[in-house]
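Researcher: Sequence recovery benchmark, item below. Answer with residues only.
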């Protein structure tokens, strides 16, 4: 019987155990050289695995990744540099036919995959003009006199006319039109703007954002421009605390344009209007209590005094 090492049994008992299912959809094959790289940070490993899971053509700019992942732009830029230095990412600048510069990004599941990338085609240089060699100088022979033509048999010669074709000009293609700028998204506005109290609350809410987060420091002009969008939120039933929480959640580390960030969130996260509450019947107060003149029992009556129900029934039977 072979001897079993106790430390090996402990590792087998308390180490990681895998319970996997066979995946047939929505899975990605990753290399252990990426996820177990000893020199890559965990942010770089996770970002490399996320990029490998994206379909071809997905935008992976710093701002695109920051909008999808819970990481800041500085952290994403550092992780991309790590992946590029270790050979898991390739980035190159290319110029489109319209003159625009774009960045082409290629994700490698292994550093050796970069060697399989096709090389960029090289344009051959234009051929050099070939100069024909000069003929050798020779002594001209003595000219021989030509025989005189017979004027009777001489006929006028006509030079052959060859039609000369005009040089054809290649059609000049018009330059490609520049892409039109994206239309600016209009800020939401309240349906009923004539509410001074709601306007004052919106004007007071925006400057107080810097109390919740110092990064949301807005200028006076931006406060007046964005107050109408805050009024639209208040008109739809959003509270002061809910608006502040929505504008301050998951902010980037160093926002370059706090006013633009607030305007974007006020536009894309505008809550839908609430349905009207069902109409309730108005409250009717019950009749006050009074005492019966016969038995001194308390009962409700719209007037003071009188008789209770039992005394009324007894008097009616006696009559």
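Model:
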């Amino acid at each position: 019987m072979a001897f079993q090492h106790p430390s090996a049994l402990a590792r087998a008992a308390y180490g990681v155990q895998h319970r996997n299912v066979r995946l047939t959809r929505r899975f990605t094959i990753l290399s252990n050289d990426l996820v177990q790289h000893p020199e890559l940070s965990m942010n770089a490993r996770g970002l490399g695995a996320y990029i490998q899971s994206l379909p071809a053509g997905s935008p992976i700019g710093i701002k695109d990744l920051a909008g999808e992942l819970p990481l800041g732009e500085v952290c994403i830029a550092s992780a991309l540099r790590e992946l590029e230095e270790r050979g898991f990412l390739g980035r190159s600048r290319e110029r489109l036919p319209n003159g625009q510069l774009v960045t082409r990004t290629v994700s490698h599941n292994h550093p050796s995959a970069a060697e399989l990338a096709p090389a960029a085609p090289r344009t051959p240089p234009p051929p050099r003009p070939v100069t024909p060699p000069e003929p050798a100088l020779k002594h001209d022979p003595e000219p021989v006199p030509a025989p005189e033509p017979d004027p009777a048999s001489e006929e006028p010669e006509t030079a052959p006319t060859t039609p000369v074709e005009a040089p054809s000009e290649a059609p000049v293609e018009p330059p490609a039109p520049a892409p039109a700028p994206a239309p600016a998204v209009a800020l939401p506005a309240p349906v009923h703007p004539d509410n001074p109290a709601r306007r004052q609350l919106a004007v007071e809410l925006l400057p107080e954002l810097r109390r919740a987060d110092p990064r949301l420091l807005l200028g006076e002009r931006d406060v007046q421009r964005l107050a109408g969008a805050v009024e639209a939120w208040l008109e739809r039933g959003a509270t002061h605390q809910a608006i502040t929480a929505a504008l301050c959640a998951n902010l980037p580390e160093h926002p370059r344009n706090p006013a633009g960030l607030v305007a974007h969130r006020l536009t894309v996260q505008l809550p839908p209007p609430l349905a009207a509450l069902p109409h309730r019947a108005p409250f009717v107060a019950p009749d006050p209590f009074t005492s019966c003149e016969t038995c001194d029992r308390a009962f409700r009556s719209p007037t003071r005094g009188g008789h209770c129900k039992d005394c009324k029934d007894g008097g009616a039977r006696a009559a």
